[in-house]
Amino acid sequence: MSNSVDIKELNERIQRESSFIDMITMEMGNVIVGQKAMVEKLLIGLLANGHILLEGAPGLAKTLAIKSLANIVQTRFSRIQFTPDLLPADVIGTMIYSQKNEEFVVKKGPIFANFILADEINRAPAKVQSALLEAMQERQVTIGDQTYKLDEPFLVLATQNPIEQEGTYPLPEAQVDRFMMKVVVNYPKQEEEKLILRQHLEAEFPTTRTLLKPEDIIQARKTVKEVYLDEKIEQYITSIVFATRYPQQYGLNKFQNMINYGASPRATINLALAAQAYAFIKRRGYVIPEDIRAISYDILRHRIGLTYEAEAENISTTDIISEVLNTVEVP
Question: Which residue among 1, 47, 212, 222 sits deepest, i.e. has the most Cβ atoms within 10 Å of its Cβ?
Answer without folding.
Answer: 47
